[in-house]
Every structure is written in structure tokens, then in C-alpha cells.
Amino acid sequence: MRRPDAPTVNEQILINVTPQETRVAVTEQGAVQELHVERDSSRGIVGNIYLGRVCRVLPGMQSAFVEIGLARAAFLHVADIWMARNGDGPVKPIEKILSEGQALLVQVVKDPIGSKGARLSTQVSIAGPLLVCRPRDPHIGISQRIEDVAERENLREKVHSLIPPGESGGFIVRTVAETATDAELQADIDYLVTLWKQIQLAASTAPPQALLYQDLSLAARVLRDLVTDTTERVIVDSRETFHRLKEFAEKYTPKALPVLEHYSGERPLFDLFAVEEEIEKALARRVDLKSGGYLIIDQTEALTTVDVNTGGFVSGRSFDDTIFKTNLEAAQSIARQLRLRNLGGIIIVDFIDMDTQEHRDAVLAEFRKTLSRDRTRVTVNGFSQLGLVEMTRKRTRESLAHVLCEPCPVCAGRGELKTAQTICYEILREILRAERQFGAREYRILASQVVIDMFLDEEANALTMLGDFIAKPISMQVETAYTQEQYDVILA
């Protein structure tokens, strides 16, 4: 699998399979770099092809909503419609292309994330082991990771000569195809062309919102997308999945066969490689650095922020040296955390302020170097005038935290709770409001133990004063099922 000039990364891919869930961990030098989770109940839909139905066209946004059978209509922008551009001419307005009720063959390019529906494109891409077929684009592209100019041109000419006569579609040559033989490339082309014809045939008879093509399972996508020349082992802990992957590899990815292994040990695979521990760390807000510094990672709907702190690290030379070394280590750790947590969208990194331009350039260079191993497209804009590093990372699926976690029912995702004292004052105001509006005979407070305790101790005088003021009895009752912010005022 490894080329003689390939870098030594010591990459291993671990596949843990249960009846309900498949988890994949990619490790480099023994450290977990990526985590992928796929559940049967909520399998991702990126790559799926549907016969959609246009339900609404928005000329003002040059967009449309398309129903594909999900809870929310999916979003399609005019830039993602292949019929919108005629050669190099101007883009046609979306209202000239689509109409409500129209059937449209579309592919999902982004999973639904949060409150946003799926993102669609009519520019279909079907991935094979070596190539990506783009049946509506006649061009032949080459992976950017293949840097040799002569090799790129050779691959382009080779693929062009292997395309069957009469086929108008194009292909993108993947990095793994760099050393592929003509026979392997021809087999991939034939497979993808046949698959596209089958999708077109199904679309001609299928009802609206029908699923025409579903991407491979996570385990199979590992062999197609993640196994590279630097992969030393792919370890699977399910015998049934191992045999399925072996059959898939024999047919489509023969280069993955030598590294495919079945793990039959008694100790769980993810425990053996300390992956479970890494998953717990990847869900924490704080990430400790070996030097004693630490990161604080906050993920919001709009963007993700990463704050770097020196913590207890003190270098032996100078404070500037301490800051520089902490930032260098943080740059490596942040790049890993972005992959590990699958954080996407806008990301703002607040490195510790550095006085010298030389140090800033060195930290940025280290950051970019570590990010270069990321399979996902990343753009780093450098330090802003405020000393922040602004960057983007392509987001196509939910982050690890969004897959494994949900908002806290107590704080509703705020990460903070109103204090017991704040709740006490809210209750006092609610009783006063109720007295002015209804004038009940007496009032009963239902609240959590900590709030009632505060009324019995620190705020006992305030409750007594209110009772005297309204001249009504006020009683209290602990509700063990209530959270700290929950309460009720009962009128009698």
C-alpha cells in the first residue's frame, strides 16, 4: 500500500460495529485524529440522489426549496443548478429554470444541520474507488494532492482515452488513482457509467421524493475514501462486517485487502486503543496541552471559537518564549481537535498575543502544516488586525458533539443556570403580580430543594416581608422533579 516516497504516518483505522451503530477512528502515531459515527436510525444522507419536487421558488434569494421526503424541505441555490449556466455566459435567473411542482433530480451535498435543511445540487457526483463521475460536467479534473504536473497531465490523458465513445460526462481523478493501472481505471469508469444509467432509468419511472441512489455505508466508505498509501491497518471487530468489506475490497478496492484485518480479542477494540477515552475528551470544552497550557473550545450555531491559554506553563527562558512554545503546541492541538470533533464553518482562533512578527509567522506556518493533513477543505486567512486567526473548514455533516449529545434540559444549551437567589426574586415578583391581578386567599410555592432552602435561610426575611405586605399566608413545597430554574406559584 505504501509508496517508497510516502511520509511515515503510521496510520491505523479502527472500525467498531454494533447492530445499531458503526464507529470509525483514524489514528496517527497512536493518537486519534478523526472519529466518524453512523447510526442506523439517523444515517447521513450526503451523496444520496433523489427525484425531488420543487415546492417553492424564491427569486429574491435566487434559491428554491425542494421536497425530498425529509421533515424539512431541502435548499437549492441557483449556483448549484447545472442548467443555470450556458457555457461561459451569465447565470440564468432561477425563476427561468424552475417552477413549483417540477420534478428535479438532485443530490444532497450537506446533511441537515441544526435548524437548516439539507443542501442540494443538481450537479451529480458519484464516487468510485479511483474516480468521481460527474455525468453533467464534461471536464476531467485531477486531485490537488497529486502535485506532479507531468503526472497530472498523464492521468488526464489516460482517463480521457478510457471513456467509452458517446459518453458526455466527466471524471475527477482521486489521489489513490495515482498508481492505478489502465485496467483498474477502466473498471472504475465502466462501473460508474453503468450506475449513472441505472439512476437515470429509475428516475424515469419513480414517483416524486423517491430515493434513487444511496451512498455506501460508513464501513464501506472507509475503504473507498479513507484508506491511502499511508494506511498500515484497517481493523474490524465484526466478523460479518469484515467479510462484507473483504468482498467489497476484492471487487472495488483491491489495494485495501493487504491491510484489512479482523479483530477477535475479548477486550473491546476501542478500549484497546484508548478511543473511548478520546471520545470523552473530544466532548469536553477544555483541552489540556502537555506543556501545562490549555484550549477552550466553544461551538455555537454561527461559529466556533478557540481560546489559547498558558495555564501553568512557564518556560525557562522568558515570558515571550513561554507564549511562543504554548502557541506552537496549541497550533498542533487545534488542527487535531478540528478533525477529531469535525468542527466546520467559521472558526476563530485566539492565540496568546505575540510581540514579534517572526513568532506569529512561525505559529501560522506550523498551524497550516498540521492542517494540511486534514481531508476536509480548510482555508486559513492568517492573523487579523485584532490578532485573531480567521479560518473556515468545510462542513458537510454534524459535528461529533451534535451527533452524540443534545442540549441540556436544565440550561437549554446556555451552559449556565440562573442562581437560586435569582429564582427566589422571580418568585417574589410573581406572587406580587398574582396578588394584584387575582387576589387569592393564600399562595403556595413549588420549587426545587435548593430554592426552598434559600427561602428558609438567606431570603427568609424577604419572604416574610412580602407575606406581611400582601397580608396573605405563603407556604412552600419542595418538588424533587423540578430543576433549579423551574417553579410554580399556586393560588388558593
Short description:
With 492 residues, this protein is an alpha+beta fold. It has helices spanning 149-162, 182-205, 218-226, 239-251, 269-272, 275-282, 319-341, 357-371, 400-404, 420-437, 449-456, 460-470, and strands at 11-17, 21-28, 31-39, 49-58, 63-67, 74-77, 103-110, 119-121, 126-127, 131-134, 140-142, 170-173, 210-213, 231-236, 260-262, 286-288, 294-299, 303-309, 345-350, 378-383, 389-393, 443-447, 474-478, 487-491.
Structure, described:
The strands form five sheets. Strands 4, 5, 6, 7, 8 and 13 form a six-stranded antiparallel beta sheet that branches. The chain has a six-stranded mixed beta sheet with strand order 16-17-18-19-21-20, with helices on one face. It is α+β, with helices and mostly antiparallel strands. It has helices spanning about 150-160, 180-205, 220-225, 240-250, 270, 275-280, 320-340, 355-370, 400-405, 420-435, 450-455, 460-470, and strands spanning about 10-15, 20-30, 30-40, 50-60, 65, 75, 105-110, 120, 125, 130-135, 140, 170-175, 210-215, 230-235, 260, 285-290, 295-300, 305-310, 345-350, 380-385, 390-395, 445, 475-480, 485-490. It is built from twelve helices and 24 strands. The longest helix is centred in the middle third of the chain and has 24 residues, at about 180-205.
